[in-house]
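User: Could you go from structure to sequence for me? I need the amino acid at each position, not a summary. Structure tokens:
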């Protein structure tokens, strides 16, 4: 190998190291599965930094982080999980940021003949609804909120046998979108996503029917890309990030940490 080839190889290796060093890995709540990839695409285009996304229920992702999963940043659908990580020294308190408030909707496919906007939650009592999809309340914040909605309106006991549980809110949306359920209590962000917005219709659940879904992000203490993680979080907090979150039905909290 001549000197020029050696120098070229060294330059290529150095470039590869720099690129890999820039990549961050983000654990994110499943309700962000449509919005966050758009935010990442814009961020990567502007910064050149790559972001790897791993979606799941907030509870399961928290368990993975506690077990040593190599994430740099965590976007939770419930601010309680980042708080747990901070208490255990696994996340940086000064990075905690409440980035959005999530909304619940009752969604039915277009081929289910129910006027959910008129009927509201009582649409679930219709005989046409054999299965109702929600996220698993044991580890998914949207699942706990959905359960609270059903109890708030006094229909839980009547329809509990019809419930099918998704591992996370994305899987709950897939169940009803695919026809395995006739209705679902889902995240508004999924109803507004390109894949679902023309396939069904929905009723927005009143905010007083369930505990507020304050969603928070935090940089993880063991991250080897702390500066890069904070840079991406700053982008989410900025005008482009917040505008995209709003377009998917998230409202921005008045209070931030």
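Assistant: Here is the amino acid at each position, in order:
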């Amino acid at each position: 190998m001549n000197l020029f080839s050696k120098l070229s190889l060294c330059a290529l290796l150095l470039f590869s190291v720099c690129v890999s060093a820039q990549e961050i890995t983000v654990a994110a709540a499943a309700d962000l599965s449509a919005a966050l990839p758009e935010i990442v695409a814009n961020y990567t285009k502007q910064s050149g930094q790559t972001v790897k996304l791993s979606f799941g229920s907030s509870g399961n992702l928290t368990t993975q982080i506690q077990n040593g999963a190599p994430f740099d940043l965590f976007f939770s659908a419930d601010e309680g999980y980042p708080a747990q990580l901070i208490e255990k020294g696994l996340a940086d308190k000064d990075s905690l940021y409440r980035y959005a408030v999530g909304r619940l909707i009752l969604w039915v496919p277009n081929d289910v003949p129910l006027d959910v906007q008129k009927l509201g939650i009582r649409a679930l009592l219709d005989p046409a609804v054999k299965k109702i999809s929600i996220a698993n309340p044991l580890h998914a914040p949207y699942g706990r909120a959905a359960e609270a909605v059903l109890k708030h309106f006094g229909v839980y006991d009547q329809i509990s046998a019809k419930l099918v549980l998704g591992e996370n809110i994305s899987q709950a949306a897939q169940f009803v979108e695919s026809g395995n359920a006739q209705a679902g209590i889902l995240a508004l962000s999924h109803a507004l996503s390109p894949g679902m917005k023309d396939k069904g219709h929905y009723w927005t659940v009143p905010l007083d029917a369930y505990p507020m879904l304050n969603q928070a992000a935090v940089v993880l203490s063991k991250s080897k890309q702390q500066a890069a993680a904070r840079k991406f979080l700053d982008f989410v907090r900025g005008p482009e990030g917040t505008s995209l979150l709003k377009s998917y039905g998230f409202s921005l909290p008045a209070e931030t940490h």
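One structural detail worth keeping in mind: The radius of gyration is 21 Å.
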